[in-house]
Amino acid sequence: xxxxxxxxxxxxxxxxxxxxxxxxxxxxxxxxxxxxxxxxxxxxxxxxxxxxxxxxxxxxxxxxxxxxxxxxxxxxxxxxxxxxxxxxxxxxxxxxxxxxxxxxxxxxxxxxxxxxxxxxxxxxxxxxxxxxxxxxxxxxxxxxxxxxxx
Length: 150
Known about the structure:
Elements: E1 5-10, H1 16-25, E2 30-33, H2 47-56, E3 60-63, H3 71-79, H4 82-92, H5 96-111, E4 114-118, H6 127-135, E5 140-144
Parallel strand pairs: 1-4, 1-5, 2-3, 2-4
Helix pairs in contact: 3-4
């Protein structure tokens, strides 16, 4: 069995340029946006802008809406209530749409250097880590951190 190399990244304190640079450093081929709502108040991180920047850097961008966290889970994560986040997100992962997207992302990640993207800077406090538990337990996972100029 081949072990998949998987990356994750959060953009909470990043610029779009720093995020794209981190992806390029690791030769990421697919940016998998696993936000339920691919919108952001942070400049450059709404779906259209992020997709354009990724594609300009020759990185494929895909949005996996059903692998995002429902509102109740996002609210729990903001409050630091990880037990509720886990319960809500594990329920999400049982839905047929989520199961289909999980299978799709597993197939893609087996053939392309893939990075899971979400807002949360700390993967262990984010649904990214829960998705990894369920879909990528045998993967070699690296959490990327955009380097901000400064």
